[in-house]
Design goal:
The chain is mainly beta. The protein folds into two domains: 2-57, FAH (SH3 type barrels, Roll); 67-271, Fumarylacetoacetate hydrolase, domain 2, CATH 3.90.850.10. The protein contains six helices and 20 strands. The chain has helices at 75-80, 153-159, 163-167, 184-187, 213-221, 267-275, and strands at 2-7, 14-19, 30-34, 45-51, 56-57, 67-71, 90-94, 99-100, 106-108, 115-117, 119-125, 141-148, 151-152, 172-179, 191-196, 199-205, 231-233, 241-242, 248-253, 257-265. Strands 1, 2, 3, 4, 5, 6, 7, 8, 11, 12, 14 and 17 form a twelve-stranded mixed β-sheet that branches. The protein has a five-stranded mixed β-sheet with strand order 9-20-19-15-16. Strands 13-10-18 form a three-stranded antiparallel β-sheet. The longest helix is centred in the last third of the chain and has 9 residues, at 213-221. It is globular.
Amino acid sequence: MRIARFASAGADPRFGIVELVADGGQFPDTVAVLDADPLAGPVNYTGERLRLADVRLLAPVIPRSKVLAVGKNYADHAAEFDGEVPQEPLIFLKPNTSVIGPGEPIVRPVLSQDVHFEGELAVVIGRICRKVPAELASQVIFGYTVANDITARDLQRRDGQWARAKGFDSFCPLGPWIVSHLSIEEASDLSLVTSVDGEVKQHASTSQMVYPVPDLIAHISAFTTLLPGDVILTGTPAGVGPILAGQQVSVEIDGIGTLTNPVMDDEVDAESSAAR
């Protein structure tokens, strides 16, 4: 299933199941509305169905607790920054306030002059868990979505740690929905393509991860309890690069969908600069 969080006229954000025309179903390009957040417990269809074109897709999950991300999990990405693959997964945190949804702008802060895209596969956790063996990782996964781990590269170099460089508001686009039908084996070999204004910048497979999803879940859950709605960003392949105001970034993962976001400069910062 494709589980979406969406907004429609006159209603608070809701959840629904997306059916696309490519599925060949009875109700193509529609959203079947659910009565509650599927991560919170059992849910039912309300019977209401909306045209996909008439709703605005939001971030499919707002992590209640945390976004955990993995650095240097593709050897070619580590190499493009003259770095070595770490001997164990390199984990860092992004605040849940950095999460935005499809179509929402990535805002370049005035503090950085070198903001980069990083297309990634994201794992959404579905149950409270700790110390999960790799062979049981599939039991705690709710589904998968597409992510863009936006990074202020100059601040990353300057700070020596990544909290500020990775943590600005809008620096964690997620979407367009969560797919729950992929097996962990299928998710381990998906095509990932990132483009800027239609020009392909990254093209890789999730099979190129140094540490695959089961190993990441085992490693992370060994030191922290994972909660429903927690998101794990699994790392980015080579080809990352800068984005500028006015550009549009798309990350497409085969079997999941395409996440697209425009880029803008911080309006307040821009006004302040103009005033000076």
